[in-house]
Specification:
Strand content: 35-45%
Number of helices: 2
Order of helices and strands: HEEEEHEEEEEEEEEE
Distance between the termini: 68 Å
Number of strands: 14
CATH class of the largest domain: Mainly Beta
Number of domains: 2
CATH architecture of the largest domain: Sandwich
């Protein structure tokens, strides 16, 4: 009888020891904070596309009411570009895998009938440094090394970054395109030309190359 009681107490002590060892790990995971880069300050996430702002390392993922999104590749710290009087900053370029929630499927059916897919996404900031209204689009054409070619009309974010930009105005937001061909290792983004309000061409388009 004493042996049974002793073994029972030993078993309880072993369980308690395991719990004490595991607790700090659980607490550390719970206290880990997501880091969202400062260039997203003031940005309101898309109502259709899952929020990827905290995804800054390959393999990270996030799930919200819009679906699940995973980061496959990222390129950040890209130098600013001057296209005439337009200053363009591409803060980050990402290749992502997206699984929309069922409630979002109808929105994406105008772009693809796949239930999950890869996409490329740019977070850009555009500033009109002149004293006149200009017309500009940050991503007129996007071409990947895998063979995809996407035009500005296929952008899934619809954040009105193309078109008129007022003197001194800054716009920032996402531009994204659904990919048909996997294996993206590099891409070329071609901006639009810069035009005046009366459609006079002021500056040539610029091509930006990105390697992951």
């Amino acid at each position: 009888m004493k042996r049974i009681i002793f073994l029972g107490m030993l078993f309880i002590l072993l369980l308690a020891g395991c719990s004490e060892k595991e607790e700090p790990i659980a607490n550390a995971a719970a206290n880990e904070e997501e880091v969202i880069p400062a260039y997203f300050d003031g940005y309101v996430p898309s109502p259709q596309v899952p929020d990827d702002r905290s995804l800054q390392k390959e393999g990270q993922s996030n799930r919200d009411l819009r679906g699940e999104i995973e980061l496959n590749a990222i390129k950040a710290e890209i130098p600013a570009f001057e296209i005439g009087a337009i200053e363009l900053m591409v803060h980050e370029v990402k290749v992502l895998h997206l699984k929309p929630e069922y409630s979002m499927v109808d929105f994406f059916h105008s772009y693809t009938h796949d239930m999950e897919f890869d996409m490329v996404k740019f977070f850009v900031e555009i500033t009109n440094t002149s004293d006149e209204v200009l017309k500009f689009g940050p991503a007129a054409v996007v071409e990947t090394n895998a063979g995809d070619t996407k035009l500005w009309e296929e952008d899934i974010y619809l954040e009105e970054l193309n078109g008129e930009i007022q003197p001194g105005e800054t716009k920032k937001g996402n531009i994204g395109f659904i990919l048909e061909k996997p294996g993206v290792e590099s891409l070329k983004l071609t901006t639009s030309d810069v035009f005046s309000a009366s459609d006079k061409k002021l500056a040539e388009a610029q091509q930006i190359e990105v390697e992951f």
